[in-house]
Here is the input.
Amino acid sequence: RSWKPPAARAFSTTPEDVICSRVSAVLASITEGNWEAYTDVVAADATCIEPETSGQIVQGLEFHKHYFDLEDTKDLSKTTTLCDVRIRMLGENAAIAVYNRVQQA
Here is the structure.
């Protein structure tokens, strides 16, 4: 099933809501340059495809650690907005979340 953010939902927390909250926590830790917070919400064996990987799948957190170690990664003046969020539950303990990230500086 696919999920889109609700306009307003009173007192109900779905698994999709939890996933969206975790995605927001990941992006906040990136914006803040907070490696500890990032590793609290991202699995050590996470995989990613990023513009820098030229289409290659990268597994593990070391790829991302490089960016946290750069001096100019902490920029609290940025505002991040998630657009077109889609969450597909793959079972009780797995999901795929895709979104467009708009970052304003």
